[in-house]
Write a structure and sequence with these properties.
Blueprint lengths: L4 H20 L2 E2 H8 L3 H13 L3 E6 L11 E5 L5 E8 L2 E7 L5 E8 L6 H18 L6 E8 L1 E4 L4 E5 L9 H6 L6 E5 H12 L8 E8 L4 E9 L2 E2 L17 H8 L21 H10 L2 H25 L3 E5 L7 H14 L2 H4 L3 E4 L6 H14 L4 E5 L4 E5 L2
Parallel strand pairs: 4-7, 7-10, 11-14, 14-15
Antiparallel strand pairs: 1-3, 2-3, 4-5, 5-6, 8-9, 11-12, 12-13, 16-17
Helix pairs in contact: 1-3, 2-3, 6-12, 8-9, 9-10
Amino acid sequence: MQTGDLKFIKSLNGQQVLNLIRKQEVISSSELVQKTKLRPSTIFNILKNLSERNLITNLGKGDSTEKGGKKPFMWELNKDAAYTIGLDIEINQLRIVVVDLVGNVLFDKVVKFASLKNVEDLYKVIQTNVESTIIEQNLKNKILGLGIALPAIVKANTGHIIRTDIVSNKDIPLAQKLSEIFEFPIYIENNANATAIGAKWLGAAKGCRNFLVVLAEFDKGIGGFGLGIVIDENIYYGHSYCAGELNIPLMNLEQMMIYIRNDLDKSEYLREYDSRPDDITLDVLISAAQFGDELAIKLFKKLGNQIGEIVNHSISLLNPEALIIAGTISDLKEIIIEPIKEIISLKSLPFIHEPLKISTSLQGPRAVALGAASLILNDFFKIPVIKRKGLNNQISVLPH
């Protein structure tokens, strides 16, 4: 073993114990010994260290085992030890959330703003909203980090935005610039990739190693589609950070209205909008479908079929265990899942589509912002992977 390996192994063991406590929610010291195969003295020292860092809480003694003996101490994660901030930035709007260490949402706010003229405006809107949130929520010196997600091609390892529609500037060193303003870590990510990380940590992809997230977003002139690809629990970025950028448009709100406009007077729920169709929003259409309106359901069947057509080739290529639909339409649940499933079942092999789990995001319109906050949790709780290589069994560390 190399000189620096002992310190690394101690850190690795500490991260393993911390993650076991996080996953189990409440666990005894004896169970930690059993699950990690570490010595009781090692577990004792790790728990002491984590407790001194205020990351875990001692709940007192639990029940004895069936064999009797001393009652073990019980431990849980101190969810209020620190908080993470997540920002979902879109054109003319952002959503900011604050979550604790287990992902509970403490704060959630949507802020509208004028179009950003340049990158300086982008810096300013981020700084203003993050600083005001920290002050309002009394979070000074309690922030673990800030995660930012936006529709962009992002070089995630440096926090550079290669290109985005939010501002005209290119190659924006966003993480570097914000690190000059804030003392805590800054992570920048594409919105579909952030949503995928959020699904892994807080949502429908818990326990999945290989899955896809479809992030569908709509406006009057925009029908956006992004694909987050997770392979072996890690985001797949591709050679130039463009994996998942399929550049295939979905129906936008204007096209949806063209599709249903002539039948509004026949709709049980939407007929009241026959004389004012411009008042129909995506939320109105979703509510109509949930109400059981046949016209709205017909519209979302068409949209679901379109999504199925787009994503089918990616599913056949990657053979994931799960497909998660995120964005506003996730509130439709089976109404949008069934037409997607219909197309995938028709166009892929049974060995691919039969075991595939298709679901909607559990986080609704907050999926991107919570995904951004999860960027910090993902880094804080990550466990390095040890790879043995060569005849001398030298240890090397791979990012998880």
